[in-house]
Amino acid sequence: MSGLYARESRSVSKMAHLRFFPQAIVGGSGAYVTGDDGRQLLDFAASWGAASLGHAHPAVREAVNRALSDQAGASYLSAANEACVLLAEKLLSLVPERARGRVWFGHSGSDANETVARMVVAATGRSRIIAFEGAYHGGTVGSMAVSGHPAQQGARSPGLTLVPYPNSYAAGSPDAAKNAALAHIERLFATEVPPEDVAAFFIEPIQSDGGMLVPPDGFLKALEGLCREHGILLVSDEVKVGLGRSGRFNAFEHDGIEPDIVVFGKGLGGGLPISAVVGPEAILNHAVAFSLQTVHGNPVCAAAALAVLRTIERDGLAANAARSGKVLREALERLAPRHPLIGNVRGRGLALGVELIDGHGPAARQTALTVYRAFQLGLVLYYVGVHSNVLEFTPPLTLTESEAHKGVAILDQALADVAAGQVDESLLADFAGW
Ligand code: PMP
Predict the structure, then answer these.
(1) Confidence band for 433, pLDDT divided at 50, 70 and 90
(2) Architecture, CATH, for domain 3-56+316-430
(3) Whole-prediction pTM value?
(4) How far away, in angstroms, is 370 Cα from ligand 1 center?
(5) Which residues have C-beta atoms less than 6 Å from ligand 1?
(6) Which residues are CB-neighbours of 51 under 8 A, at least 6 positions away?
(7) In the CATH scheme, what is the code of domain 59-314?
(8) Does the annotation count 382 as an active-site position?
(9) What is the 417 CA–ligand 1 centroid distance (Å)?
């Protein structure tokens, strides 16, 4: 364990820790971070996708420097600022027509989803919300209240109904998963959840923290049909897999749907805290002073976000995510025949997951050992999933093909070392993960 990591434990609370290994970093550039021991680690997590353009991207650096050298305040609560207006105009151009109304700015996916949850109920007068089992929409009281991830230590909203997310791998086929999930929702609508009481249906276009589950073809389209039929607002939480990561700008585009409300976060600021909700004017302008925190609409973060969006467009980073993602995915698929632990490789673009299983089912222990071993060998990788057994790949959108191959070679070694029993299990004692 490094000196910095040990010092941290004597000064910083653990309440926000989700640690998989004793990593302490002092810098970073592109797809690499620098450990306090001087090691260069290839970063396939990108701070859970927040470092969307990689670390220290010049476009973000320049935008932040410029915004700070003549600072237009620190907030948009009581004064308009140009960066927020430009960013709102840009975001409105990037969503479907039906969501093209107004933009609200927050700090995180959590405050954005919390705001949506309050706003849709207040604006529609309907009291219910539907979301998926395994969904992670945030870590604040109000965003946890509309989430379904079992690792969360918070109460669900009394108006929330959770429904199963279709899991093609577990169900045996995409069609079986799709049909069961749709039948479940239709049965609920016919019985205990009157659809006319439902304000909104929250979706993740790929359920990432729940296990990087890709919806079966046609599922979200059918769900959109049900929402339209009953006047239910469809909310696409693009916080983790949006903004180019899936290989398209919006992840919901793969499914041919048009959500009413789109939520952006994480990678939007390229490493700085900013989130955005985009949706119809009637909902987003329901009330004034409804959801405010002092430095919401911070012009420095907004300038960074604008630079991120312009860079994604200028450098074709959604296309790069599709291209590098294909290389990464194929390399991961080639590992499967040599590693019995690999049950399933899935995802879209640079939002990929590898589910590990053994004879007993989800291989949570081996998953934790694999990410620990990969860290020792120079690769940063975390895991997700309601059973803690899905390796998650959310590298920077700038990832090159050679970086993809290099990371997979390290993972190959890590999996082999775990299978050979060469990784000391006692290492995991302080790393419960989630
Ligand atoms: N939505 C999704 C889909 C997420 O994956 C997350 C974070 N994992 C959030 C919302 C919450 O974002 P944050 O932690 O930045 O508040």
Answers:
(1) confident
(2) Alpha-Beta Complex (3.90)
(3) 0.98
(4) 24
(5) 48, 108-110, 113, 136-139, 204, 208-209, 237, 239-240, 265-266
(6) 28, 43, 267, 270, 271, 396
(7) 3.40.640.10
(8) no
(9) 32
